[in-house]
Amino acid sequence: MKKISQFLIICLLVLLFPVAEVSAQSTAQSISGVVRDGKTGRKLSQASITTLESHEATVTNADGFFTLKTQRPVEAIYVSCLGYSTIKVPLDGKSSENLKIRLLPGTITLSEVIVSAMNPLEIVLAAMDKISTNYSRNNELMRCFYRETTQKGRRYIYVAEAVTHLYKSGYNRLTGIDRVAIEKGRKLVSTRETDTLGAKIQGGPTLPITLDLLKNRELLLDREELGLYNLRMEVPVTIDNRPQLVISFEPAFVTDHVLQRGRMYIDRQNLAFTRIEMSLDMSDEVRASQAILLHKPVGVRFKPRELQTTVSYRYDNGFSRLHYLHSDVRFYCEWRRKLFASPYHVEAEMVVTDLLSENAEPIRGKASFSSHDSYYDKVEFFADPDFWGDYNIIEPSESLENAIHKLRKK
User: Fold this and answer.
1) Are 67 and 395 in contact, with CB atoms under 8 Å apart?
2) Backbone angles phi, psi at 119, to 5 degrees
3) Is the dihedral of CA 200, 206, 212, 215 positive or negative?
4) Which residues is 162 bridged to in the sheet?
5) Are 4 and 40 within 8 A, CB to CB?
6) Residue 196 pairs with which residues in a beta bridge?
7) Residue 107 pLDDT > 90
8) Quick count: other Cβ atoms within 10 Å of Cβ 230?
C-alpha cells in the first residue's frame, strides 16, 4: 500500500495521568463576536476572520464564536465563509467585543449551461500548471495555532494545543525543507480509571506540511493519480467574494491504495485552488484501517468509520497562502472478550494566525518538530486558563471548554 494515502495517522495507547502548571498574561487588544447565517440565524463554524492592516487571522469555532488578538491598530475586519458574501466590519468608534455578525449567501451568475460544458479534468490540470505563479514564491515564516482532541463517545478524554512556527518554502520548490517548530503548547488527559485507551496523531503539528496538497501533489494532484478518479462539475459557489468552480471527485477504479471522495474549489479568476475537501473511501475496511492506524495495544479491535480532511488557502495581496486545515477520524474500538465497542473521534485543526516574515530562514536542528513524533509525547500538562496570553487561537467551543474544565478537576 502507498504510504501517501495515510492522511491522518493515529496510534492507540494506554493513558497516563501526570499534571503540571504554567502561567501567562494577556495585553493584546481583543476583537470577539459570533458569526451567523443572516437568514436562518444558524451559527457558522470555520468562518475566517482577518484584519485589513496585517496578515492576522483566525476562524470561528463550532459555536460560531471567535476572538482575534492584535497589538496593531485595527479599523475593520473581514469576515468570510464558504458560500457566503464576505463583509467588512468597521470597528472605528464601536466596541470590538461581542460583535454580532451576519453573513448572506453569495450569488453566482455563471449559468448551468456554461458549467456543464466545462471539462473538469482540463480545469484541474490548468490549475495545477499555475500553482507556482498563484502561490507565494518567497520563503515565509507563519505563526499557527494547532489543536488535537480525542473523544470517547461524546466525552473528551484528551485535549492538546500549541502555537507553532511554520516555515514554508516557495511553491516553486518541494516540501523537503518545510518545517514546524513548537513555540508554546499544553495538554490535558482524562484520569478516569475507565479511560484506559487513548489516541495520538503521529506528526500532528506537521499536518500543514504533509497535507499541503499543492506541494505534496502525489496525494491527489498528480496526473497519474487523477486518472484514478471520476471528475464532475458541480454548482459554483463564492469564497471571499470570488467565484469558485466546484469539481467533485470519486474513485473510478479499485487500486492498490485507498482513494478519496471529495470536492475541489478553484478560483474562476486565476485558477488557484482555494479549498479541497476529502473523505477516505471506507468500502474496504481492512485497507482503510491500514491507511489510518499505525499502532494499537494487543487485544484491541479497531473498526474505522470515516476520515475527513479539509485544506483551505486564502487569497492575500496577489498570492494565495495556506490558511486552515481540519481533519478528523471516527472509529470504534473494543477489547477482546468485551461485549460492546466504544466510539472514538480524533480531531486535528490548524489555522495560520499571522505572517511573520516573507524572507525567512529555514527552521533547523532540534527546534524542528519531526513528522515521526507525536505531539502527545512532546508537550507538558497545563492548568492555567490564561495560558495563551496574546497569542491568537481557535477559541474552544462550549463543549470543549466544559471538557477542559472537567479534566482540570480530575
Assistant:
1) yes
2) -95, 110
3) negative
4) 146, 185
5) no
6) none
7) no
8) 13
Q: Which of 182, 229, 216 is nearest to 373 (CA)?
A: 182
**Which is nearest to 252 in space by CA: 285, 234, 226?**
226
Q: Please, which pLDDT band fits residue 181 given cuts at 50, 70 and 90?
A: very high
Q: Where are the alpha helices (DSSP H) in 59-177?
A: 112-117, 120-129, 131-134
What is the bridge-based pairing of β-strands 319-335 and 99-103? Answer: unpaired
CA–CA dist 16, 198 (Å, integer): 9
Q: In this predicted structure, what is the pLDDT of residue 25?
A: 46
The C-alpha R_g of the chain, in whole angstroms, comes to 21
User: How large is the average pLDDT for residues 307-316?
Assistant: 94
| Pairwise CA distance, residues 320 & 218, whole Å | 20
Tens-digit pLDDT profile for residues 346-402: 999 999 999 999 889 999 888 898 888 888 777 766 666 678 888 898 998 988 888
Rounded Cα gap, residues 158 and 11, in angstroms: 13
Selection from 69, 408, 118 nearest residue 246 by Cα: 118
Q: pLDDT tens across 21-37, in order?
A: 444 445 568 899 999 99
What pLDDT, on the 0 to 100 scale, is given for residue 101? 96
Who's near 193: CB < 8 A, 6+ residues apart? none
**What nine digits make up the cell of 303?**
473498526
From first CA to last CA, the distance across the chain in angstroms is 42
- Residue 371 and residue 368: Cα distance in Å, rounded? 9
Q: How far from the centroid of its chain's Cα atoms is residue 179's Cα?
A: 17
Set of cell numbers at residue 346 = 480524533
Cβ-contact 75, 53 below 8 angstroms: yes
- pLDDT higher than threshold 90 for residue 261: yes
Beta bridge partners of 97: none
List 282's β-bridge partners, or say none: none
Residues 309 and 326 sit within 8 Å (Cβ to Cβ):
yes
* CA angle centred on 326, ends 241 and 362, rounded to 5°: 95
Please give the grid coordinates belonging to residue 345: 473521534
CA separation for the pair 340, 385 (Å, rounded): 36
Strand segments (E) across 99-211: 99-103, 140-152, 155-168, 179-189, 197-201
Cα 95 to Cα 87: distance, rounded to the nearest angstrom: 18
Contact 321, 135 (CB under 8 A): yes
